[in-house]
């Protein structure tokens, strides 16, 4: 019986010691460090630095910081019936960095006649755009376009937004979140070969 009592006292004392230690650890523990301030989420890396606009030019810099390319839309022609477009781009690069071997150009087209709709095709590969070794180049890009809404009248206007990437065709195509129908930030388009749709 003595052994059982001694064992019981030992277990109770041990449990009390554990509880007492736990209590004092919580009571006198240093306060946890304040949470680190949450920084604003970084902007997604530019694949074409946004979209080309008529007044300002756009800049592309790849993920390694190489191949800095500025591009500006000079003219855009759309042939909805022929399902093609022609875009003339003025390209400039930083001569202190290596010239990109390839660029991809992509454009989408929209009309004020069809709010919230755009038409586009696949990005077009531009091989050796700076082959002449110069820091600037002018390129004419013919690209496929499909599903363009027919103009309602001769006064219908189309607009284009262009993107250029040195990473890939996938990076050249803008995501749905970056599609905008703001005509002030787009290039006016000359329409060829289209007949107004009947009302």
Give a written overview of the molecule.
With 199 residues, this protein is of the alpha+beta class. It has a domain at 58-191: Sandwich (Immunoglobulin-like). The protein has 2 helices and 9 strands; from the N terminus they run αββββββββαβ. Strands 1, 2, 3, 4, 5, 6, 7, 8 and 9 form a 9-stranded mixed beta sheet that branches. A hairpin with a 4-residue loop joins strand 2 and strand 3 (84-93). The termini are far apart.
Key descriptive features of the protein:
2 helices, alpha+beta, Immunoglobulin-like, 199 residues
Provide a quick synopsis of the model.
By secondary structure, this protein is α+β, with helices and mostly antiparallel strands. 16% of the residues lie in helices and 31% in strands.
Kindly estimate the percentage of residues that lie in beta strands according to DSSP. 25-35%
Report mean pLDDT, rounded to a whole number.
77
Please name the CATH topology of the domain at 58-191. Immunoglobulin-like
Instruction: Tell me which CATH architecture of the domain at 58-191 applies here.
Output: Sandwich
User: What structural category do the secondary elements indicate?
Assistant: alpha+beta
Low-confidence stretches: 37-57, 60-66
Question: What is the CATH class of the domain at 58-191?
Answer: Mainly Beta
Give the strand tally. Answer: 9
Measured on Cα atoms, how large is the radius of gyration? 31 Å
Oligomeric state of the chains in view: single chain
Largest beta-sheet details: 9 strands, mixed
Distance between the termini: 106 Å
Question: What string, H for helix and E for strand, traces the elements in order?
Answer: HEEEEEEEEHE
Instruction: List the total number of helices.
Output: 2
Shape summary: elongated
Helix content: 10-25%
């Amino acid at each position: 019986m003595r052994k059982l009592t001694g064992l019981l006292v030992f277990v109770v004392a041990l449990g009390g010691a554990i509880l007492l230690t736990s209590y004092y650890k919580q009571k006198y523990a240093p306060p946890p460090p304040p949470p680190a301030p949450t920084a604003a989420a970084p902007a997604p890396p530019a694949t074409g630095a946004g979209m080309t606009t008529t007044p300002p030019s756009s800049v592309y810099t790849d993920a390694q910081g190489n191949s800095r390319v500025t591009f500006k839309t000079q003219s855009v022609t759309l042939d909805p019936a022929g399902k093609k477009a022609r875009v003339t781009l003025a390209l400039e690069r930083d001569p202190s960095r290596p010239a990109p071997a390839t660029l991809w150009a992509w454009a989408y087209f929209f009309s004020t006649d069809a709010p919230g709709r755009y038409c586009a095709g696949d990005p077009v590969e531009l091989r050796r755009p700076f082959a002449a070794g110069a820091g600037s180049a002018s390129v004419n890009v013919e690209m496929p376009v499909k599903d363009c809404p027919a103009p309602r009248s001769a006064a219908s206007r189309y607009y284009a937004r262009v993107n250029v990437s040195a990473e890939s065709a996938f990076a050249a195509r803008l995501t749905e979140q970056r599609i905008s129908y703001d005509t002030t930030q787009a290039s006016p388009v000359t329409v060829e070969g289209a007949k107004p749709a009947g009302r």
